[in-house]
Amino acid sequence: MMKIKKGIQLIDQHDKNYMYGGKFGGNFIPETLKKPIDDLTKLFAKLRKDKKFLKERDYHFKNYIGEPTPFIKLENLTEHLRGPQIYAKVVSEANGGAHKIYNATVHCLIAKRAGKKYIVGDTGAGYAGKMLSMAAKKFGLKCKIFMGAKDIKRQRPNVEAMKKNGAEIVSVTTGSQTLVDAVSECMRYWVSNCDTTHMCVGSTVGPNIFIKICAWSTAQISRELIKQVREEFGKIPNKLKLINCVGGGSSAAGFWNEFMDTHAQFIGVEAGGPRNSKLHAAPLTNGSKIGILHGAAQYVIQDKEGQIGSTKSISAGLDYPGISPLHCFLKDTKRASYTSASDEEALKAYQLVSKLENISPSLEPSHAFAEAIKLAPKLKSSEVIIVNSCGDSLKDKDIIKQKLGSYIR
Amino acid sequence: MKSKIAIAFDNCKKEKRPALITYTVAGDNTKNNSLKILNKISKHADILELGFAHNTPIADGGQIQGSSHRALKNGIKLKDVFQIVKNFKKNNPSKPIILMGYFNLIYQNGENNFLKNCKSSGVDGLIIVDLPYPENKNFANKCKRKSINFIQLLSPTTSKDRMKKIIRDSHDMIYYISMLSTTGGKLKVAPRKILENYKKIKRLNSNKNLVIGFGITNKTISSLKTADGLVVGSQLCKTITDSIKKRQNPVTKLDKLVYSLKNNIL
C-alpha cells in the first residue's frame, strides 16, 4: 500500500524517477528540456541548503511579501453557523493579494542565481502572472506571461496589473483558451528559449522540479500558521480541519505542509463546475484516471483515448483538468480527503463571508468556504476549522456582478 | 534480420543520398486523404512518420498543432491510425512507417496493447516525444523485443555523456533535433553549425543512422544533405493548411512538395 513517510518533506518523498508512490509525477518531457531541468534540479538542491540563499528568501518574505499574514477568527460566521470555531488564514493580505507571490519570488531569486535575464510563466486567474510580473519587476528580470484568451477576458483586473508591471502578455488562442493551454504554450516557448530564459510554472504541477520549488515556496503559509495556531490555542487543537481549495494545488500544499506529521485533518475542495453541467474541474472528486499532463503523471480529466478533457468552473484559478501529483499522493495515502463545491455554492459562500466578515474571499477560496459552511452544522463547538483565504474577491468583481447582480466586499 | 528502417537507410547510402523522411498527421485533413497522401508521397520518401494527434502537445509548433487539431476534429482515434497504417502497408509492405506522438495515448491504451496493435498493423518504429531517456528504457526494451524500433532523440542541449548512453541504447535510427525549438520553427541556426554538431555525434558511433529534423523545408534541405536522413514535417502540415484555404487538393499538393524535396537532395 502507498504510504506517506514521517519526518521527510512531502516534496522529497519521490523515487529515483521522481515519482510519488511510484505512480504520480515524474518528468515526461521533450529531450530538449532534459538539461535545463537537470540544471535547475541541481541548482535548487544546492540553494535549499545555502544559508545565504535562505536568508535572502526570508528577508524578502518578511519585507517584500509581508509576514506573517493574519490569522483571524471569523466570529460572525462562527456564530451564524452555530457549529465549530471557524478561522481564516488571510493569505490574501500578502503583497499582491495571493499565495502565488511566494512561488514567484522564489523563482525570480533562482533565475538571478542561474544568471537568466528573462522569466516566463503561465497564469489562469491571473494571480500567478500578476505576482510573477511584480516580482520580475522588483528583481530586474524581463517577464512574459502566457494566458488563455478566455481568461484574459474574465480576469481583467489582474491583466491590467500585469501590464502595469511591464510584463508582456501572450494571449493563448489554442484549445480551450484557458490555463491548460497557457501552460502548454509556456512550455513550448521554454523549449525554444531555455538557454536564456527561466520558466516559472504557476502551481505545483509540471515536471518534478517545478512542483518542488512551488510547494517549497508556499510552505511559508503553514510555517506561519503553525506558530499562530499554537499561540491561539496553546497547542494544535485535537479536532482541527484545514480546508483549502485545489486547482493545481499550490496553496493547499503550502497550507498543509508543516502540519503533515500532526493529527490535523486536511480537506481539499475542487471546482465542481456549474450545478447542472457535466463539466467540472474536479479530477480527484470525480474519479478521473491517471494520465500524463504537462510532464507529470496525475489524476486528470481525459477521455478513454487519453485526450485531455474540457473543464468548466466559475473560478479561473481552479479551471484545470489535472491536479498536483502531491495531491494525488495525499489522496491515495489517505492523508488528505478531497471533495468539490459547485459554482453556485462558491458564489453563496463568497456572499455570506463577505457580508458577515471583514474579509472577502475570491472565487477560489470561496470553494473552501463552501465546504466549511456545509460541514459546520455537523461539528461541535470544540472543533476548529481553518480556511485558507488565499485570494481577494476584487479580481472577480465582474463575474460576481454578472452572476449575483451586485458586488459586495 | 534487418529492420525495414535499416534497409531503407542502406538503400539510400548506396545511392549516396540522405533518406527523406516525411511527417504527416493521421487523419489530416481526413482519414481517407491521409491514407491517400501516404500512398502518393511514399513514391518519393524513404521513411514515413505518421503522427497520432494529442490535444495537449508540449513540443509542437503551430503548423503541426493545426494538423492535429483538424485530425481530432475529424474524430480520429488510435484504431483509425492503425487502420490507416494497415491499409497503407497492404500496397507498400516494405516502406517503413514510424508512429510519432505523446505518451499519454499509449499509457491509456496500455503499453502492451499498443505494441500489439503496432505489430499487427505493420508499424516499424515509434517516436515518443515526452518519454526521454532513461525513463523510456523499459518501454524501449519492450519495443525491441517486438522488433519495433524505438527512436531516441538527441538535442543541442544533450550533454556528451548523455549522448553516449542514449546512442548505446538506441536501435536503428536516432533523431537529432537541429535547434532549440518546437517543431516547425524557423531554422535559427546556420546549416553549417547544425552539421558541425551532427558530425560530433556521428563520431561517437558512425554506424548509427542519425537523422536531422526540425525547421527543414525545401529551401534548406539541400544544405543538410550530408546527413543520413532528413525529416520534413511542418512544411507538409502547412501545405495541407494552405491547400484547404485555397480549396486545392491537399493530396496532389503534398505529392508535388515531397517530389521537390526529394529532387533537392539528389
- Bin the helical content of chain A: 40-55%
Work out the radius of gyration of chain A.
19 Å
Any idea of the CATH topology of the largest domain in chain A? Rossmann fold
Measured distance between first and last alpha carbons of chain A: 47 Å
Q: Just name the CATH architecture of chain B.
A: Alpha-Beta Barrel
Taken in chain order, the helices and strands of chain B follow as HEHEHHEHHEHEEHEHEEHH
Binned strand content of chain B: 15-25%
| Number of helical stretches of at least 4 residues of chain B | 11
CATH class of chain B: Alpha Beta
Multimerization status: heterodimer
Strand count of chain A: 14
Taking pLDDT < 50 over at least 5 consecutive residues as the criterion, the unreliable ranges of chain B are none
Structural class of chain B: alpha/beta
Mean pLDDT of chain B, as a whole number? 96
Strand order of the largest sheet of chain A: 3-4-14-9-10-13
CATH class of the largest domain in chain A: Alpha Beta
For the sheet with most strands of chain B, the description reads: 9 strands, parallel
The first-to-last residue Cα distance of chain B is 29 Å
Strand content of chain A is: 15-25%
How are the SSEs placed, and which strands pair?
The complex is a heterodimer of chains A (409) and B (266).
Chain A: E1 19-20, E2 24-25, H1 31-47, H2 51-66, E3 71-73, H3 75-81, E4 85-89, H4 100-113, E5 118-123, H5 127-139, E6 142-148, H6 149-154, H7 156-164, E7 168-172, H8 179-193, E8 197-200, H9 208-218, H10 220-233, E9 240-245, H11 250-256, E10 265-271, E11 290-293, E12 296-299, H12 325-332, E13 336-341, H13 343-356, H14 363-375, E14 384-388, H15 397-404
Parallel strand pairs in A: 4-14, 5-6, 5-8, 6-7, 9-10, 9-14, 10-13
Antiparallel strand pairs in A: 1-2, 3-4, 11-12
Chain B: H1 4-14, E1 19-25, H2 31-41, E2 47-51, H3 62-73, H4 78-91, E3 97-101, H5 103-109, H6 111-121, E4 125-128, H7 137-145, E5 149-150, E6 152-154, H8 160-168, E7 173-177, H9 191-204, E8 209-213, E9 229-232, H10 234-245, H11 250-265
Parallel strand pairs in B: 1-2, 1-9, 2-3, 3-4, 4-5, 6-7, 7-8, 8-9
Helix pairs in contact in B: 2-4, 2-11, 3-10, 4-6, 5-6, 10-11
